[in-house]
Amino acid sequence: MDEKDLQLARAIVANDLSESASSTPSGSPKPLRKLQNDKIRAFRRTRSLNAPSPIQQFGPCGRIMKNSAMVMTIQDPASQRLTWYKPPLSVLVIKKVRDASVLSPFVQLVYWLIQEKRMVVFVESAVMEDQNLDEHSSFTSVKDRLMTFKEGKDDLTDKIDFIICLGGDGTLLYASHLFQQSVPPVMAFHLGSLGFLTPFRFDNFQEQVTNVLEGNAALTLRSRLRCIVLKKSKDGVKEDKTRKPPTNLLVLNEVVVDRGPSPYLSNIDLFLEGKYITSVQGDGLIVSTPTGSTAYAVAAGASMIHPSVPAIMVTPICPHSLSFRPIVVPAGVELKISVSPDSRNTSWVSFDGRNRQELRHGDSLRVTTSIYPVPSICAQDQIQDWFDSLGECLHWNVRKRQRHLDELTDLTHSSSDDTLDSFEQNELLEREQ
């Protein structure tokens, strides 16, 4: 709350006191009061996952120091809705590879986008090599109008306005991998095996895509992790970044450091904001986003976190200590992971299951929250989509219902004589006999 907001709040309080002293018999408020109420409602939040924005001043003298180097700002998730400042013209369609069941929906979608919506459609060049697509007459009629690209060779930055994924969660991870900076809005259709990150059904895709193109959709900003691997040269001096750039990747789910093929335990040093935290001894370590909390992290014993929560999760893999529990640290902090100097073996690191490489002694991995999230389009809203996914995909809190008392036959058919005293008397009679 800035100085103007503080003065406004004080004026309203003063106006309340004056109204209580000089109110009319009918109790009608003054016009000034109504105008001030309307103005203060403009910055009052009524629904949020992250709690209301805290004020910047505490008491008469204390306040938070202003810092121009702000890592990220947290917007009220309830207000995150998609809007276009100009009509989208190009769309990237990503389909699940080596899956015949996706071919027919892919052809329907591509044909509709080109013929009906007059959009420029991009697909991966490997898709055009699928000979099964030639069996669809609709595809052959629009095949020459498709734009193609190759991963790692063609830059899609500033070429794609909109992304549509057909398949499972891997298609969304692939879309995140293609865009290592700003990501266009992603609409994911569930045509895979799990579908935790793909909330849309393909039955009425025309209506759903039209609503999105018209700007009628809620967004979930899924944070990503910026991961930098710094290698150590043979002479013991870290390599110059200008001479050989280090590995720099953005991941949507998690970065995993494990022991690889070695039979020995991993021995990894963990630093937070440059301060030594602990040494991880076990099978490895998972550093995940809230989106990735429902992936590898939850299988290793971590909690499930809503993707709008600004946080980084640190989860050990089979730690050699029963007290080593998963932790959650604030988004924006920098984690440093390195192989301990006295470790018997090296470690291996992978980023969303890709780009697996070895971490040797002296190498380090830096992880922090990226400023480029993945704007995932919601089928309904952030709350409903996430809990529907928990129930449908993970069967969260699914159990057999407890029966009602009227349904218990052993209670309904029991008599009032079956008391504890009667059972004790029967036992005494049996002993005497």
The level of helicity is: 10-25%
State the end-to-end distance: 86 Å
Strands, count: 21
Strand order of the largest sheet: 10-9-20-17-12-13
- Indicate the radius of gyration in whole angstroms: 29 Å
Mean pLDDT: 82
Segments where pLDDT lies below 50 for 5+ residues?
16-30, 38-50
- Broad structural category: alpha+beta
The oligomeric state is: single chain
Largest sheet: 6 strands, antiparallel
Strand content: 15-25%
Morphology call: globular
* Number of discrete helical segments: 11
Provide a concise account of the structure shown:
This protein is of the alpha+beta class.
How would the blueprint of this fold be written?
Elements: H1 3-21, H2 31-41, E1 57-58, E2 62-63, E3 90-95, H3 103-115, E4 120-124, H4 125-128, H5 137-142, E5 147-149, E6 162-167, H6 169-178, E7 186-190, H7 205-213, E8 219-222, E9 225-230, E10 247-251, E11 254-258, E12 266-272, E13 275-282, E14 284-288, H8 296-299, E15 311-317, E16 327-330, E17 335-339, E18 347-351, E19 354-359, E20 364-369, E21 374-377, H9 382-393, H10 409-412, H11 420-432
Parallel strand pairs: 3-4, 3-6, 4-5, 6-7
Antiparallel strand pairs: 1-2, 8-21, 9-10, 9-20, 11-14, 11-18, 12-13, 12-17, 14-15, 15-16, 17-20, 18-19
Helix pairs in contact: 1-2
